[in-house]
Write the structure tokens for this entry.
Amino acid sequence: MGRRTQAFLAGCGLAVLLLAAGPAVEARAAADPVDATVSLQFYNPQVAPGRQFDLGVFGHLKSGTLDTYRTLVHLPKGMTLVPNADRNCKATSANQREIACTPGAPGATIQVADDVPVGTELTITASADIGDAVDSHPEDNTARQVVLVKPGADWSVKWTGPTAPVQPGSTPVTTKLVVTNHGAEAGVPYIITSGPSDYPAQMELDGKQDKSCGTATEGHGLMCTPKTSVPPGGSITFTFRFTVFPAALGKEQRREARVTSDRAPSEQDINDNSTALVVHVSDKAAQPTAKPTTSAPNPAPGGTTPATPPGDQLADTGAADPGPALLAAGAVAAVGGGLLVATRGRRRSH
């Protein structure tokens, strides 16, 4: 057998080996597909025209590996992405409506245009970007979220209290916080109060609050949620009582409150969602009121009571002893300070 024949046969053998190996490689690749999943999340998906909302974008691989994995989001006309360097979603188009999100929180902030007609339903879609890979379960690698564009409840809050001077003591200072719904729909408000952490304590909640209030996670305050919704034009009142301690003498006490709801993006006007309560505490402690004492006059020599001189019958004429009156006036004069409530001005357009 010549050298040319041997070379030819060797080449044929190599070709046969390559042809046999090709299907095996493809079979191994086909045996290891990926399984991607995508979901969108917007609780109570209702938003007022001109408002923003946070959209949760979640995508991950259940199985398989990819060099790059993204979730592609398409926004309809009337919505745009709000750029944010801290978010994991970035715009891939000039109109800010095509978005690519890498795995991880917290998603994207979406702006709704002012001119979207009330009652419009806008649909957001998302899909898994897996390149040329094959998804073994493609039924969950796409998602959609329908958003209703419509104003909902609209809240204002006002905190009031006594206007008389405030003194430290065992008697709590009672205040009223009123939340009003100015919107077109009923809603359930969330009220969060906050205040400083003082040591020694100056003014603290006395612990006897409404059952719908629980300790907030911030600012030494409360979070209150009524059990029933507040109708349009309706209001709900919460009573907060504070104990003022001697360390507060002469100092200003400030507490804040804000209101939101489970459908916050649907609120048309948010410029009056917070209020501040300012309590001025007197710089002097209250003086105890003296109690008048009564005693029998000393008897005159000889065991007789002296007669009342003419002109000294004040009890008969209504002119009483001025001592207790002066003491009471002094007690009032010793009390200073007061309580102020500051609220943001309400601005509404009709």
Remarks:
- The radius of gyration is 38 Å.
- The chain has two domains: 35-149, 155-285+335-343.
